[in-house]
Amino acid sequence: MRLAFNSVDKNNDGVIETSEVIAALKSLGMNISESQAKKILQSIDSDGTMTVDWDEWKYYFLFHPATTVNEIARFWKHCTISDAGA
């Protein structure tokens, strides 16, 4: 889980931002918009900062198990597609 967090947190500042979500998914061949990336962050962000720190990541994925960035990306892709129909 920590390796997945670190692989998304490209600038190593301890938080994941919208641009890092977009870049992580793009590296896996998935292009998403900034608004879709914000929806992903909002689903994990528990303190309203529009960033995700290690604790938020860890607690979120305790309830939504995923072990690799690919699994996380598939889950996020499903979430953004589901939200688009709402």
What does this structure look like?
This protein is mostly helical and 86 residues long. It has a single domain, classed as Recoverin, domain 1 (Orthogonal Bundle), CATH 1.10.238. Helix content is 63%, strand content 5%. It has five helices and two strands; from the N terminus they run H-E-H-H-E-H-H. A two-stranded antiparallel ribbon has the order 1-2. Helix 2 packs across helix 3 (34-44). The termini are far apart. 21% of the residues are buried. Mean pLDDT is 84; it is low at 82-86.
Please render the helix and strand layout as text:
Blueprint: H1 2-8, E1 15-16, H2 18-27, H3 34-44, E2 52-53, H4 54-63, H5 69-84
Antiparallel strand pairs: 1-2
Name the features.
86 residues; Recoverin, domain 1; two-stranded antiparallel sheet; calcium ion binding; calcium
